[in-house]
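Subject: Protein record for review, amino acid sequence with backbone structure tokens
Concerning: The relation between a protein's sequence and the shape of its backbone.
How to read it: Take the token row as a discrete description of the fold.
Enclosed: The protein record, placed directly beneath this head.
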Amino acid sequence: MEGPARTRLVALVVLLAVAAPLVIVAVVGRGGGDENEDEEAGLRVERSPGVSELIVFLTAEANTPERAGGRQSVTVECLDTGGRVLSRQDETWPLTETDGNTLDPHAHVPVDPARINDVESCRVRPADPPLEGPVS
């Protein structure tokens, strides 16, 4: 190989050597997709074992007076797949931790036992940015 062919080959090798690490950084930097999206939103919902209720947890960063526009109360709603509200409860805002400071701030939301398995997500209203997440 001589002249222009060799120059093109060297340029291609250099381009690949620079591009490959950039692609790897871009893929790794995405954080694995939507896996942690709900936690980033600040809201997590779990079924309470043995009781017909859902527990709506908030991170400390999401549980601020500013998040609800300075309001002293919010409404926690739990919805089915069609967006229908199956349970609604007013809560003092910001939420407090009621279990001996062993858990994140949360609300216990009672749900009709016949409909508890229909609940897909819960949300806190008003909240800006919105606080909503699926039942895990």
Q: What stands out?
A: The CA atoms of residues 11 and 132 lie 50 Å apart. Residues 4-29 form the longest helix (26 residues). The chain has two domains: 1-30, 37-134. Helices lie at 4-29, 37-41.
